[in-house]
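User: Second chain of the day. Same drill as before.
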Amino acid sequence: MKKKFLAAVLATAMTVSTLTACGNTQSATDPAQTGGQTTTVAEEGLGAGSGAGENVTAADSSINVCLASEPDTLDPALNSSVDGATMIIHLFSGLSKWEQDASGKLVLVADCATELPEGTVNDDGTVTYTYTLRDGLKWSDGKDLTASDFVFSWNRAASAELAADYGYMFEVVKGYDEVSATNEDGTPANPDAKLSVEAPDDKTIVVTLNNAVAYWNELLTFPAYFPVREDVVSNESWATDPSTYVCNGPYTMASWDHNSLITLEKNMNFIDANDVSMGTINCYLSDDVNNMLTNFRNGDWQLIDDVPTNEIASIKTEFADEFHIAGQLGTYYVCWNVNEDIFPAGSPYAGDENAKAEVRNAIALLFDRNYIVDEIAQGGQLPASSFVAMGLTDADGSEFYKNAGGNSFDGYYDTSLDAYESNFSTAVETLKKYYTYDEATGKFTDFPTLTYLYNTSEGHKAIGEYLQSAMAGVGITMNLENQEWATFLNTRKQGDYSIARNGWLADYNDPISFLDMWTTNSGNNDAQFGRGDHAKAAVYSIDLTPYGLDTKVENGTWAETYDVLISAIKTCTDDNNRYAMMHLAEDLLMQTGAITPLYYYTDLYLLDDSVKGFFSNPLGYKYFMYTSIK
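Assistant: Same format as last time:
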């Protein structure tokens, strides 16, 4: 997923175009302000784009789009991909959502809730929110949607039993630790535990957070917080069959021809159906960018969410008014399996995590990020010097990544054009400590063969081939292996790889959304930190005493340091301390060398100029419900 605003404009688009919670830093004493910048506009018709209020319901009102290939799942609690999330926001509605206002600005608004209320601070420092549901909310099968449906859904999504990738998104809710706890065999430790969320009646939801959370109302827009119905999800295959797919959003799933087409049709039981202008969304499933471009050229598809990188130059000319490049809050990176053996047989460094980290960090210096963005990606991307993406703000309003690393340059790598030669030399000298180097050929002779895993895509393949050549230049053999999207996600998640292509878009506008994913038990911890042999690696240190905490660990494990640090961040209500600790977390993450950022994402797509009312946001979601074709 990609798009473009040049450097300074990109930062502005991401931080000002308004993901409001982080733009208004909250103090420890005023958690009520968390929702203070929100505006309830759903019933005023704002955010509906140019098609809003037209109530276009004709049977021939349809749009053909291609976001990606077959999604792994369309269960809101289990989905972890951006393309899946885009479909889900058309099928479900949560308590809040992102909309465009009349000026085209993104705003956070109430959705199923009548408003986004201020929180009440309790004597113990917890914060309670009380939401009232709108009258007339229905499921797609006509049954009433109630507050109890949200209570059930949140407990399900957070549960150890479901073990969802995004279960940790509920960590801010009181009771999460008990709900998510597992025994050594992975079974729920407290099967009867519940989150602190209640439904005193059919229209009222009362939820208590552990402490003030600046981005709480943004979390409510995330699919994991969407409601599902207990009797529906009791059928484990409910989300794969249109006949059992019951939802509450603007659309229903009319058909799913697996690996070919998902058809969404307007949900006439949706409370805001009159604002939905597009009758049918045909979501074609493909990872063949050449096929996508052909269908766009033919006029068969009105939006394609990827383009062939080798044709970008000509596409910019041929489709000057239809090729879009916009800013995104995301980072494209290489991910290592920390448990992978990367030393030659008989090496004295086998099992030495500090040595492995030094090797991985050295290899990161072999890659010319400017070449990748200028010659391969070609979509206005910028070389990445940190994992936390550009555009996310720090406590003082400056960009977080510019303050990372503590170097004379921004972030953890000097990505300037004239730094590459020096970076390369540093990498080679470091690797000489661990591998045999042939001075005559300028290559290492005993580095074990690696396999680079990527999901099927010409763009990912091209980047993989560049990385392969860069490593071959110093004698390191890296084979390439591609898998289709759903298989790739699960292979990476299970740690069945050595090194893999990866990418991450913010789930909400706060740096923690790039950091909490790496805790030991996170479902998004593809690097396998704190798992397998890495669980015993006692090589990490943290000192949180400068931030008023009695925590100092030297030579601790990942669980004893990183997990503890993330927990401290999430319970901290002092903004300066919280952001300072997030920098410590990224320092610890980058110390491992297992995360190798390549570039900051942009979102490239082709949109037919006949389509009106479309919009997207920097989190990667695209909105078709208010479109029309003129």
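Residues 1-56 have pLDDT under 50 and may be disordered.

User: Great, on to the next one.
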